[in-house]
Each structure stands twice: as structure tokens, then as C-alpha cells.
Amino acid sequence: MAPDEDWREPPRGAAAHVTRLYADQDLALYERLTGHRLREPLVLNLFSFLLGVRLPGPGTNYLKQDTVFWRRVPLDAALSATVAITRLRPEKRLVDLATVCRIHDSGRDGDIVATGRALVLAPHWTPDDWDRHAQLAACQA
């Protein structure tokens, strides 16, 4: 199973990335806290981490998220999540981002687990922040 033909790789430049391997004890704790064994919310957690800590960063308000899962989330492999800016709307302090999560493991490295998009409010960005990210986006066009 692969993403549909309209899906594109996130642009390079204005992006943030994290790789995480959930250990058995992480999954057991998650199951104890939530009462179920779904692993997909753990992928969404990676996106939330990136948006709230790295890009745009602390103070970010999550407004919307759409995610499509293309395969089951493996228990035995590291996951690499990336968020990348696709559109800036400084007049409203809004940032649109593409999201992608891949398996980061030999033999399956690069297989896409989930793709999507997020819309966030970045009230803490200064005019310089908006200008810097707009310049990165212009370089990619």
C-alpha cells in the first residue's frame, strides 16, 4: 500500500525530524493508561512533539490535524517522523505543515506508515521568524 498520487514529499528546509523506538515497557505503560493496544496514537504523539517543541515550537496551538495510515505501525521498529512547513500565513499567524512517518529499520527503512497535514497557530513567532521561514520556502520553490 502506498500514498495516493496526489501526495508529495514534504519540502526540504523548514522541517523538523525525530526518530523514536517504542520499547515494550513504553507500549505496556501506554496500554495500561489507555486500556487499548492501538499504536497509531503513538505516531500522532511524534507529530505533536515536533510541533510543540521544535517547529514552530513552544507556545504553538494545534488547530487541525489530518492523518492517513498506510500500514500498521510496527512494534519492533524505530519510527521517523517529519513535519515540514508548506504554507505560511503571517497575517493570521498560521502555519500549514506536511507530516510523514516512516519506518526507520533495516529491511523496511523508508516505508511510509502515515502521511498528513497539520494547521497550527504560532503566536510566539516574531516578524524575523516569519521572514526567515518565508525565505526558506522561497528557496525551495
UniProtKB/TrEMBL annotation:
The organism encoding this protein is Nitrospirillum viridazoti CBAmc
Query: Cross-referenced Gene3D superfamilies, in alphabetical order?
Result: Hotdog Thioesterase
The answer, when asked if Transferase is one of the entry's keywords, is: yes
Q: Which GO terms describe its molecular function?
A: transferase activity
Keywords in UniProt for this one? Transferase
Name the InterPro entries on file: HotDog_dom_sf
Q: Which domain of life is it from?
A: Bacteria
Q: What is this protein called?
A: Phosphate acetyltransferase
